[in-house]
Write a structure and sequence with these properties.
globular; binds pyridoxal-5'-phosphate; single chain; 386 residues
């Protein structure tokens, strides 16, 4: 066994695919410490600065004092506690849905919903840039899976035309996690009625960010549609942990009885639910966080544009700087870290060959000084290698 592991590790190392962990000392924030040295953090999904917000911390501490730490078991066995129910009500209201159900992570939610609503006889149409957890979910569902080119409504329509399945499910991210582009939901929605299809929308990066009040991709397009099932995460812009699905009462009832990643896992800790509820309150009461985030996005992109750096199709807080070659990308990421800027390099298989990139994410908590300093260092490092 040890030999097999060593061999596989060597193979990863030779292919430059071995990954390792970096310890961040202290909480998430615009600047963090690594080995005692300060770094500007430009790869966290804590987009609104809520992960270390005093109100979230207080809500979690109060809930721990009242309910303890662990939930004890699966929700169906002994685990449903008032903070779970309260958060689900809060999410349903926030998303304008009849009901919501918590999952332990976005990964669980995607596995849990897609496998419950699409079985062997279903046709799933999944955007090629969808998150890895969606791909895993589609495979696990045993449905007939077709991946359509990113955001290509015409390609999708011709696939739908040929489908004979009664159950046709379109699956897309709202914001694509490696490109920062927004799915053309307005166009996709027109296909739902025409082909009697459903849509599963993964709003992991859109929740709290997109739309006038942060409700996500549908709000961004000013669209409501009863055939859209919305998923969102609590661990990104909401600063907590976990995920949810919002939809009809019937959908939620079906998931409670059928969704294996809901049924066969210990419930979220009550304190995490209390913190997430507090996060939704803050998002509703403090729209200025989103205003600052969008100002920072524009400021950072303007800086890249002025330096002639390509950020492709990004329309959001996820801003990939295309560096193409994987070795060059990882080297640039290391050099930036030495210079005090923490940005992850992304390479195949996460992105296609030749499309390696430095994936920047900005937060509402970055100051103009943070971003200016980061831009200067990025231009220093990428200046000669382009
Ligand atoms: C992060 C992410 C997930 C997984 O969410 P977690 O709560 O981190 O497990 C799912 N889908 C997309 C698009 C994501 O970016």
């Amino acid at each position: 066994m040890r030999e097999l592991i060593t061999e596989e590790l060597k193979r990863l190392e030779v292919g430059n695919l071995k990954r390792s962990l970096i310890v961040i000392e202290g909480p998430q924030g615009p600047r963090v410490r690594i080995n005692g040295n300060p770094k500007i953090l430009l790869c966290s999904n804590d987009y609104l600065g809520l992960a270390n917000h005093p109100r979230l911390k207080e809500a979690a501490i109060r809930a721990i004092e009242k309910y303890g730490v662990g939930a004890g078991a699966s929700r169906l066995v002994s685990g449903t506690m008032p903070p779970h129910a309260l958060l689900e009500e809060r999410i349903a209201a926030f998303k304008g849905a009849q009901a919501a159900l918590l999952f332990n992570s976005g990964y669980h939610a995607n596995l849990g919903v897609i496998t419950a609503i699409a079985g062997r006889t279903a046709d799933i149409f999944s955007d090629k840039l969808n998150h890895a957890s969606i791909i895993d979910a589609c495979v696990l569902s045993r449905a007939n899976l077709t991946r359509y080119p990113n955001g290509d409504i015409f390609a999708l329509e011709s696939l739908l035309k040929r489908s004979k399945a009664k159950n046709k499910l379109i699956v897309t991210d709202g914001v694509f996690s490696m490109d920062g582009s927004i799915a053309p939901i307005d166009g996709l929605i027109t296909l739902l009625d025409r082909y009697n299809a459903f849509m599963y929308l993964d709003d992991a990066h859109a929740t709290g960010v997109l739309g006038k009040t942060g409700r996500g991709t549908l709000e961004h397009f000013n669209i409501e549609h009863p055939s859209v099932i919305q998923m969102g995460t609590l661990g990104k812009a909401l600063g907590a942990f976990g995920a949810f699905v919002a939809g009809s009462k019937e959908l939620i009832a079906l998931l409670v009885s059928k969704s294996r990643p809901f049924i066969f896992t210990t419930a979220l800790p009550p304190a995490i639910c209390a913190a997430a509820t507090e996060a939704i309150d803050i998002i509703e009461a403090e729209p200025e966080r989103r205003t600052r985030l969008w100002e920072n996005i524009e400021f950072f992109k303007d800086g890249l544009k002025a330096a002639g750096l390509d950020y492709t199709k990004s329309a959001t807080q996820i801003i990939p700087i295309i560096t193409k070659d994987p070795n060059y990308t990882m080297q640039a990421s290391r050099r930036l870290l030495e210079k005090g800027v923490f940005i992850q390099g992304i390479r195949p298989p996460t992105v296609p060959a030749g499309a390696s990139r430095l994936r920047v994410t900005v937060s509402s908590t970055h100051t103009k000084e943070d971003l200016t300093e980061a831009l200067t260092k990025i231009i220093e490092v990428l200046g000669d290698g382009r």
